[in-house]
Amino acid sequence: MHIRVINPNTTSAMTETIGEAARRIAAPGTRITASQPSGGPVSIESHFDETISAVGVTEEIRAGENDATDAYVIACFGDPGLLAARELTRAPVIGIAEAAFHMATLISTRFSIVTTLGRTTIIAEHLLEQYGFRHHCRRVRAADIPVLDLEEEGEAALGRIIDECRRARDEDNIGSIVLGCGGMAELTDTISDAVGLPVVEGVTSAVKLAEALVGLGLGTSKYGDLAFPRPKAFTGRFEHLSRETP
Amino acid sequence: MHIRVINPNTTSAMTETIGEAARRIAAPGTRITASQPSGGPVSIESHFDETISAVGVTEEIRAGENDATDAYVIACFGDPGLLAARELTRAPVIGIAEAAFHMATLISTRFSIVTTLGRTTIIAEHLLEQYGFRHHCRRVRAADIPVLDLEEEGEAALGRIIDECRRARDEDNIGSIVLGCGGMAELTDTISDAVGLPVVEGVTSAVKLAEALVGLGLGTSKYGDLAFPRPKAFTGRFEHLSRETP
Amino acid sequence: MHIRVINPNTTSAMTETIGEAARRIAAPGTRITASQPSGGPVSIESHFDETISAVGVTEEIRAGENDATDAYVIACFGDPGLLAARELTRAPVIGIAEAAFHMATLISTRFSIVTTLGRTTIIAEHLLEQYGFRHHCRRVRAADIPVLDLEEEGEAALGRIIDECRRARDEDNIGSIVLGCGGMAELTDTISDAVGLPVVEGVTSAVKLAEALVGLGLGTSKYGDLAFPRPKAFTGRFEHLSRETP
Amino acid sequence: MHIRVINPNTTSAMTETIGEAARRIAAPGTRITASQPSGGPVSIESHFDETISAVGVTEEIRAGENDATDAYVIACFGDPGLLAARELTRAPVIGIAEAAFHMATLISTRFSIVTTLGRTTIIAEHLLEQYGFRHHCRRVRAADIPVLDLEEEGEAALGRIIDECRRARDEDNIGSIVLGCGGMAELTDTISDAVGLPVVEGVTSAVKLAEALVGLGLGTSKYGDLAFPRPKAFTGRFEHLSRETP
Amino acid sequence: MHIRVINPNTTSAMTETIGEAARRIAAPGTRITASQPSGGPVSIESHFDETISAVGVTEEIRAGENDATDAYVIACFGDPGLLAARELTRAPVIGIAEAAFHMATLISTRFSIVTTLGRTTIIAEHLLEQYGFRHHCRRVRAADIPVLDLEEEGEAALGRIIDECRRARDEDNIGSIVLGCGGMAELTDTISDAVGLPVVEGVTSAVKLAEALVGLGLGTSKYGDLAFPRPKAFTGRFEHLSRETP
Amino acid sequence: MHIRVINPNTTSAMTETIGEAARRIAAPGTRITASQPSGGPVSIESHFDETISAVGVTEEIRAGENDATDAYVIACFGDPGLLAARELTRAPVIGIAEAAFHMATLISTRFSIVTTLGRTTIIAEHLLEQYGFRHHCRRVRAADIPVLDLEEEGEAALGRIIDECRRARDEDNIGSIVLGCGGMAELTDTISDAVGLPVVEGVTSAVKLAEALVGLGLGTSKYGDLAFPRPKAFTGRFEHLSRETP
Fold it and tell me: What ipTM did this prediction achieve?
């Protein structure tokens, strides 16, 4: 099985981190390709960053369609471009936020999210609403760490995340914690050990969900609103996206 | 990996059907044990049947705990005894209704459920509400087939299910269909071929979700409300359930 | 009128407490039978305890059907086996949690719940969601008292409940408090006097709702999903539950 | 016990109908006073009619406070002036819409409403939302009968209501029907017999709920937002409503 | 364009304050008439005050209909009589609570409300639910100031409002604040400057929404439940409201 | 006042249509600039089209920031890039879907949407959920018309829209209809006349809301999650989006 894990930002160090986390968790028969867009933001910390990164995500999907891909993972906690990506392929496409939410609800009745910056908590809230998990999430917390600091100042950042997770454990009446950033993928075990309750991480969760769907023979429905987009002309620098009538 | 698939009713033919469906979908390294309670209803078609069957489900969990079980599946669409079962083990426990709902939302934006009897649609509705999928499910439909007829009059029952699925496809503005009975496990491909959109079945979905959680090293949270029940005396014919102080 | 008040646990002291509370509140013409299952947990403090106790509840309903019962009360705050119980009789069946919620919304716009153990707050939350009262309840609070301590260490337990109720009064912006355990039935007036706002208790509320429904000539609907369960065989030690075709 | 049943409109024939329905259902020790405002609309079929009638309702509460009243019923399905009425008394105040909703959810999992005019269905919808019963009500139906026609052309009106109730029974997947107008109080048994499932009527339901609350010693909370209004001057023709500082 | 701004209470000083705020914000071509009922409460701080004031609101609408009015504003944060008022005219009618909510959601993803008295927070909560903004409002806060103190002890009251607004800014994770009282209209800029985030006020918001709707040629729909009330007799002191058949 | 109306697609005929509709409705002092991205889809009929168009929307915002723009309108019914656009400016940014929803709720209690293609109804549903209007919208209907057919085969397309609007009027129990495509802007009056109830169109609604916000001195909150994005590098063909530290 070939799973393409798409890091929507363009920081190759993070792409590697995400790829390694994916490979560590992947089943024996699963091959992981970790990729990133050729252009876009080096980190995603706003609605604007998300909007730009979504274009790169769709490009990576199209690239994957020429590379015998069985499933895709979008490895940014805002699930940028998720529904657009699904329109472009028959393969399953999993966002790491939704993946973590699904897994968390299977092992606990309530969870809290610990993410990076306060300004991105609204993105998680909107996803919780759209996916149906608003009442399963007690609180969306931010450790106030810029995403790239997860790479650069590892110890300090890790400490602040652990502190916030402990506050969630002690104050939120929860059974598990969801990590709200793809860049936290390699920290999961450390955090879980330090906090003492299950910590759910999205990249790893999404890889296993992707394997599960492929194993079930289930792909993105091409019946209804996720069918391939209609043939259409694109103009200007997006002209290459024009779709011929089949 | 050892997954125990619990058929909450006591019809061994259905236990076999469910076990075979589970084995067909299981990963190479996964061993499936299909079991059923020593006593209980031969099918589950009411709140009362569910209530009695839940006792058997908890017994099968306890049996599994003495049999090196890595994960459990509760193979009745009402997910009977799910939260009680989770309290009894560190392993993941997956209900087939929740499993199908989760998978359906990963491949489509909206789905409908096709179940057996009209009187059980309320059970599905309550689960949709508790799990957060109310707005993802367009409609809960019943083919008006007693559960055991799925075994006995295969062709006729299959035909009515397919007819109802086609109505769902044509009327409900959906992308996928969820089959609302564990007894339909072996019919999934046939129905999907006949209806022409993805059909999500719970037993197979739950097995793959169980494999995914075990692969992630995630088990039922023992922190908070799913912790092991407190030590306590049980009386009368439930005396054997008394829990000593550890 | 004959009302059967079912204590789902098997602690006879609590059955007596509940029975006395019911008798004190019952109308002149109302006869109260307080009963408990022949076997089961001595207290209900987990999903597992609830699951086992639900079997006893259904047995008590069947016993009541042979004892000219006009209405039933399920006297545990989780309303265990409520819908199953309703399927077994034409009489009204009232859970004490739902009863307290209904009454609280008739005398105040918002209420808080004060229950025993933190781990059972999720049970109240699920009931609030299913019954529709999520937004009427400001907060579910726990006094961290094991249920049986209500019997054993009365004063100390009472003090902690009153403290928690006062916190609810001062912090939650509410008009009334719902007591979240059948074992608190005899404490209602004391707590209300100490806290200074209306305190709604479930056993007494359920008895009056049962009288009201009987007075209205309304019983559990036998049309639709609460109709008597279909004829069916039960096996093993539940064989006695087998239902003949009428 | 003295219950004041307030007909918010000024049609004395309807006040009598409502009073008789209340007396028929009242417990032996309950005395019913049926009253109506000295001025206002002869029937309530719009938001405007409701707004005006609410003034009369509050006058009847004040009249009741000088007449040793133990509980109040507001006998119009829109529950006009309910929260204002509650502010004016320590006694319980029950609206017939909320009363019918509460009772219907105790005997069935889902119900439909059959009311008079299509334009008033929005009033019922808003109440369902505020009270928390939106998901318990499958559908709000109108028989397209002006309220006073219930008095004037009894047979014809009755026939149309029964027809609409039968459609609800056959199409809505429900267990009970709620009658959406106080003027239907005397028709309840006839309709229930004709339709064959439980029919819940508000006036009778409210009387029994009022008796239940009084029996419980529960009155409208004077703690929080339903406390007596603050002292205040009223001007012009509402000057008589000025409240002195106690 | 002629907009009638209705102050539902009878304190002329507040009517002037509101009128001035409306005139300051009105477009060049807009004429503002600020009016108040001939009788009613001098301030609105309870459900009862609201109920009485709603009658005056409808009178002012009828007065406006004889005065070539293009749009109406109901200048009390509880939007008293809003739907009744809409039934009486083809012109748009805007409540200041809804107006502020709409505007706040256009400039921020989440807001908090700062109102006068704690007992009126429930009124705002009910409106948030009915209008659909429950999840957009983080918190409803009260500065514990009687409405008329806004006029009488300006500085002190202003200080307490600003303090509460700062708490909202620092604790609620919001982007804007909604002022919860028409009497705060003239304080908006001062508060906004002191707090440092956008402050949305209802009277000014409603005037601009009214201008917008008139500019669009949109008025209250006379199709469906906001159509003019049916012809009907009113009795007693409301006899003058009787509606002839057109 | 200078309002920039952004047509997210690249069909200049539609940009002109939208610009004319905006100019017809604009206040005397309002100058309308109608613009479109330099590249992108010629119409927006899928999640993918939306994702690409959002990039163009953000470019048009940045262009507007160099052109003394007081407010922005995003003239596609999916409100593509709305939150990203808000991050880029202190000016108000209004989407035409949200604008139409807000206006429709001010003149009716319930509305239905009539849009172009069935596959885009999910986009409207997601917006209704996020904005809070789910329960105000009875139904999202599609006339099954590709967007560009609105330009090309005017009469035929118009007829089908009117037919669908009439079905909404007759079946949905509504007070108004929302047109679900910016390309319908010039058809509003014709449709409203043909259907006989208020028809709310987004472009015109958004222009008036933009004028209202500017008139109020309210702009997008720069406090919290809509603040300007943090300084950051962008790579590849998005390098020009890199943000220096101020």
Answer: 0.96
